[in-house]
Amino acid sequence: MIYFIQDTGSTLIKIGYTGDDASKRLRALQTGCPSGLQLLHIEDGEAADESRLHQTFAAFRERGEWFRPAPLILAYIIESAKRHPISPIKEDPWPLKIYAAGKISGSSRWRCHLFKPPGLGYAYELPEDTMRGEWPITKSALLELHHYTGPYYVDGTHDDGREYEDDSHGAPFDDHRCRLTGDIPERCKKAIAASDVLFAWIDSIDCYGTIAEIGYAAGLGKHVWIAGRYRFRDLWFVYSLASLLNLEYCGAPEDYLEIFINRYCGLNDSGSAPLEEVRQ
């Protein structure tokens, strides 16, 4: 088994081989490492494959089996995770029901790229008349396999001709009470409760609704996966609620989600560490 483990302090990536479970190797390495370690990816391979990778990425070697997180190495991990997904574990809920938290403004429609194929327009948009009551679970909408639980977005205008607020999920905004009318928070809470995983894409520090969703999901004991291109110092407590956290890649949200799913499968194999043991 070939594994890629990253030191969150130095950001260096260890490319190694183990004949044992990769999560056990992670725990062994963590014992002597003062900073947190993340298991980025595992794939089938022998010692010869490890040597080949060391030779391929020799220009980025820092010391021993530790390499700088060069774009070529990160690209290899992302592409390898797509080509060689780890088989799902039978006792785990599969497909996963995933809630995609993050800013929902019109200029940040990153969710549409999670849908493969995306379907008609933005797959997470719903007609206005379907926004009443609980949101549906769209089956096999995420990466052609996993189920999407929310949130949903409505684009258009109200009956009186006013356009919907970009971040309102289609609900009118009451400027006097500084709140959305309708039951959007209840719909979000019910969708999170119906999910196995909350995947949060944080690309801005003013993601106030996302912060609340993460706290609610963590309180329900849901798996919380947080990703983003930047690490915001003021969100340290929010990050501590994540069962899987990655703020190092320069990839798109769909790349992070695929790697998280692969890592989730690997770390929940028989005899391996439960997800909670690899918290940051």
**Distance separating the two termini:** 24 Å
Percentage beta strand: 15-25%
Largest sheet: 6 strands, mixed
Number of domains: 2
Would you count the extended β strands for me? 13
Structural class: alpha/beta
| Mean of residue pLDDT values | 75
Largest sheet, spatial ordering of strands? 7-8-6-11-12-13
Radius of gyration: 20 Å
Secondary structure: elements and pairs:
Blueprint: E1 2-7, E2 13-17, H1 22-31, E3 37-43, H2 47-56, E4 61-63, E5 66-67, H3 71-83, E6 97-102, E7 138-142, E8 146-150, E9 173-174, E10 179-180, H4 184-193, E11 197-201, H5 208-219, E12 223-227, H6 236-240, E13 244-246, H7 253-267
Parallel strand pairs: 6-8, 6-11, 11-12, 12-13
Antiparallel strand pairs: 1-2, 1-3, 2-5, 4-5, 7-8, 9-10
Using brief descriptors, characterize the structure shown.
7 helices; alpha/beta; disordered C terminus; Rossmann fold; 280 residues; 6-stranded mixed beta sheet
Describe the model.
The protein is an alpha/beta fold. The protein has two domains: 82 residues; 182 residues, 3-Layer(aba) Sandwich (Rossmann fold). Helix content is 27%, strand content 20%. The chain has seven helices and 13 strands. The strands form three sheets. Strands 7-8-6-11-12-13 form a six-stranded mixed sheet, sandwiched between helices. Strand 1 and strand 2 form a beta hairpin. The radius of gyration is 20 Å and the shape is elongated. The C terminus is likely disordered.
